Amino acid sequence: MRDLGPIRRHTLAITVDNESGVLAKIVGLFSARGYNIESLTVADITETHDVSRITIVTSGSQEVIDQIEAQLDRLVTVHKVSDLTELGPHVEREMALLKVTGGGDKRLEAMRLADIYRARVVDSTIESFIFEITGSTEKVNTFIALMREVGLVEVARGGVVAISRGKDPS
Amino acid sequence: MAVNEQKTGAENLIQALTELGVDTVFGYPGGAVLPIYDALFQQSVIKHVLVRHEQAAVHAAEGYARSTGKPGVVLVTSGPGATNAVTGITDALLDSIPVVVLTGQVATHLIGSDAFQECDTVGITRHCSKHNYLVKDPERLADIVHEAFHIATSGRPGPVVIDIPKDVQVARAGYRKRSALHNGYKLQLKGELKDIEAAVEMLAKAERPILYTGGGVINSGNGAAQLLRELARVTGAPVTSTLMGLGAFPAASPQWLGMLGMHGTYEANMAMNECDLMLCIGARFDDRVTGRLDAFSPNSKKIHIDIDRSSINKNVKADLGIVGDVGHVLEDMLKIWKARAHKAVDQKAWFAKIDAWRTKDSLGFRQTGKEILPQYAIQRLYEATKAKAPIITTEVGQHQMWAAQHFHFESPRKWLTSGGLGTMGYGLPAAIGAQMGNPRALVIDIAGEASILMNIQEMSTAIQYRLPVKVFVLNNEYMGMVRQWQQLTYESRYSESYSEALPDFVKLAEAYGWKGIRIEDVDGLDAGIAEMLAYDGPVFVDCRVAKLENCFPMIPSGAAHTEMLLNSSDVKGELDEDAQALV
Predict the structure, then answer these.
(1) CA-based, 20 to 30 A from A115: which of A55, B5, B174, B541?
(2) Helix count (H) and strand count (E) of chain A?
(3) Do residues A36 and A64 make contact, with C-beta atoms less than 8 angstroms apart?
(4) Nearest Cα to A76, choosing from A41, A10, A29?
(5) Does B185 contact A at CB distance below 8 Å?
(6) Residues of CATH 3.30.70.1150 domain(s) within chain A?
(7) What is d(CA B4, CA B7) in angstroms, rounded to the nearest whole number?
């Protein structure tokens, strides 16, 4: 086998025609060619609802990433593929909702930690909170790990969305 | 326009096909396409060819497309009609053949209900087509058909599937024809000028250049094949080709090295190994071509011209990649070459090496005795037919490789074979499609006795349309390539590779209304071929050949170009486990 170089995490932004089957085509491309998907988000982004933006976090050597980009780019429904990691500085955010139950000290500790991590309480009962946290994947991971100690019972995560820094669109 | 003056979806479909210049459709009717068949019945521009199995419809469309340069069109019903077509669609994808496949679908309100003859056609074909559509809005049908033809035939060509629910076929709607529903679909025909200039300079300095050409030259159009000849003339470089590219460069040229790769010639593979500059033109460094990657042409600079950006650096790292259409890029290369008044580098030493490799006579064989060697049969068939410049189709296996080695092609679109997918059963329907597109041509399917049985039912189609196709079977009573690998890799344990219980092919041919001929031995070979050629109608030749002949030369899977087996005495009988895992 050829030495393909070091494996790195890349965040790809893909704009596509917003029509049925596009997501299946892209996900199928990844599975058929043995590429990895660490995170995937998709939402329609135009006023006319005809274009969606897909953010995929994947990992591979530079050659593999180039190949993924080329494979995506030749799909009929794909408008543009941007490797944000290669393009330079960019902002990456992830959102998560965490349900934490319990009372007493644990409940107080959960509140304190949430405050440190700037997580917001979006729902509360006498025995539970739902926290909303936004931040880098790393920050979300750390917050979830901490919450496990203080009564975490359920997590919902949104996956990564990302955009390049500066005035120019990616 | 009042609603009742609008045409039905089926009528709009026929109008779109007619406008697109479609003259032939290969298909098979069924419940979900009855409205389209009714519309076909009421017109006379488009001829429908009724195949006997939907897989064959796609192969026939491929044969039509490859031999004429026009897209092939297929019409099949929902459910089994569509699933039977999947092998053909995948075949067209891997070999980049422009085919548009129209499939019927159950009515929109039934989709997802497991209705009779329902299947998720767009789901099933999503990853084996270049693009596909489910038409939900009757107003968009004509638009979609126009765009589908554009996508199938442009860029890197491929199969496009249009799934049309039965209610959409019946609904009345306006007729529109835009061909850009997807404005993200990009085409890059012209290569980057600075890269082309760099390529010209590299080529002008190379001492041991080689042109490695592929099916992209043929797909780019006949102009591209002419430009390739011109480039070879001005550079003086030797030329080799993949299986798919045969015919783009004339086999009669002294610069021609023969096919390269697993069953390529010794000189082609050695020249690939020792060149200092490789110019890859519309080929894709397939594993059958490269052999072991880390030993592939270790000391060369590589330039890769391909219309599909994802082909560049996929398997082999190119020093210079040029994304563009072969014809456009070659035209620019030649202009720059001539503008800069480059002369071909003296390649005497290079050709002396090549001539030394040629003395190995790697395709050589000795026909002795009465038993026909398959290579000899093809050589005689070639000699008897070359003046007619026949269109040759093949099935898949030893006979295919022998045909590639011993039949020689002087022009493009004469050689139709399943290269990428390797589909047994391709040859007969492809011959039918080629004959439909080229009524006066001599079309011969060089086949094996195992492959031909995979689509033997198409003999009915040939007789129905009075197509004088010839099937020339090299009958060795084995799935020969499987048997050869078992001999090489599994100490001759011939597990299930014997063609047991074969039919009497002559009687079978006659039962279908064909002429049947059996050639038993060398004495009958030329006469049998002559009899086949003399008959004005379809002929099936059962040519009995040596049973255990192997196809050489051969680079075993996972071996380097320099580790080529030239004949049986090179065969050890077993490969190590790593090699066994490779196909």
Answers:
(1) A55
(2) 5, 8
(3) no
(4) A29
(5) yes
(6) 91-164
(7) 8
In a domain, B123, yes or no: yes
Residue A1 has pLDDT above 50, yes or no: no
Confidence at B577, pLDDT banded by 50, 70, 90: confident
- Classify residue B419: in a domain, yes or no: yes
Q: Which residues of A touch B (CB under 8 A)?
A: 1-2, 15-17, 20-21, 24-25, 28-29, 32, 63, 66-67, 70-71, 73-74, 76-80
**Lookup: tokens for A24:** 């299946």
Flag if B184 and A77 touch (Cβ within 8 Å).
yes
HSE-up of B558 (CA within 13 Å, CB side)? 11
DSSP secondary structure, B351-406, as one string:
HHHHHHHHTT-TT-----SSSPPHHHHHHHHHHHHGGG--EEEE-SSHHHHHHHHH
Q: Provide the CB-side half-sphere exposure for B375 (13 A, CA).
A: 16
Q: For A7-103, where are the alpha helices, taking DSSP H only?
A: 22-32, 62-73, 84-87
Which residue in this structure is represented by tokens 């072991």? B292
pLDDT at A13 over 60: yes
Question: CATH no. for residue B261?
Answer: 3.40.50.1220
Note the helical H segments in B291-373: 326-339, 348-358
Q: What is the pLDDT of residue B179?
A: 61
Residue A106: per-residue pLDDT: 94
The ipTM (two decimal places) reads 0.92
Q: Which of B155, B182, B312 sits opposite A77 (nearest CB)?
A: B182
Average pLDDT over residues B115-127: 97
Report the distance separating Cα B454 and Cα B418, nearest Å. 14
pLDDT digits (tens, 9 = 90+) for A37-61: 999 999 999 999 999 999 999 999 9
Q: What is the mean pLDDT of residues B15-36?
A: 98
Mean pLDDT over the full length of chain B: 96
pLDDT (tens digit per residue) in B307-336: 999 999 999 999 999 999 999 999 999 999
Whether residues B257 and B160 fall in one domain: no
* CB-based contact A79 B184, cutoff 8 Å: yes
Q: Let me know if residue B428 belongs to a domain.
A: yes
pLDDT at A155: 98
Give pLDDT tens digits for B27-36.
999 999 999 9
Fold of A8-87: Alpha-Beta Plaits (3.30.70)
Tell me yes or no: is domain A91-164 CATH 1.20.1050.10. Answer: no
Structure tokens, B244: 């798919």
Q: Which chain B residues in 109-138 lie under 8 Å from chain A, judged by CB atoms?
A: 122-123, 126-127, 130-132, 134
